Amino acid sequence: MANQVSTSAELLDYITSVSLRDDEILRGLREETAGLPGGTTLPVAAEEGQLLALLVSLTQARTVLEIGTYTGYSTLCMARALPLDGRIVTCDVTDKWPSVGREYWKRAGVADRIEVRVGRATETLDALLADAGFGPDSFDLVFVDADKANYPAYYEQALRLVRPGGLVVIDNTLFFGRVIDPTAQDPDTVAVRELNARLFTDDRVELSLLPAADGITLVRRTAV
């Protein structure tokens, strides 16, 4: 009974039926996104979006940083969980895809909580670290879901931007199971594998890798 439960399609359907609280706005953005390039693989699943919203609520986050927006489904989920004066800064290399989500953000009444910053993520994060309005220790929660080759760099920047006691959530840390395939030596897989190894020995944080979706790692910053 202590072992991991094997999940069949039927069991996943059951889990969705008893846990996913969906609505028209969320479904609408998912459906529009599904028709776009990468639209069935790049966004988080609806269940993961709901988990992100719960994590925002549990941590009582007022400031959230998202690295990787795409069409803003996860952005929407987290923004709805913020208090009225909360703020989420979401970063993407282009404004093309976040613009898809803006109408849904407006319909959900959270557009005023969302700031999109466009550019290379490493440069955007450096700018946030130097920004008088933000700077180190300024975010309660950081969600990392961008290009995998830069995950180690994003993690180090995120750890500086999140406050002590704050949470960093990293998506795709099992990367389709490729992390355990020794023949998988592409830059994305190597970077995810490197980050996982680094996290395990990082005494600045507490962590748990959840075997859900494509691997979700929760990292709580403990060092001041």
Automatic annotation (TrEMBL):
Record keywords? Methyltransferase, S-adenosyl-L-methionine, Transferase
Domain of life, per the record?
Bacteria
Classification via Pfam families: Methyltransf_3
One GO term in the molecular function aspect is: methyltransferase activity
Biological process, per Gene Ontology: methylation
Entry's InterPro entries? Cation-dep_OMT, SAM-dependent_MTases_sf, SAM_O-MeTrfase
Q: What is this protein called?
A: Class I SAM-dependent methyltransferase
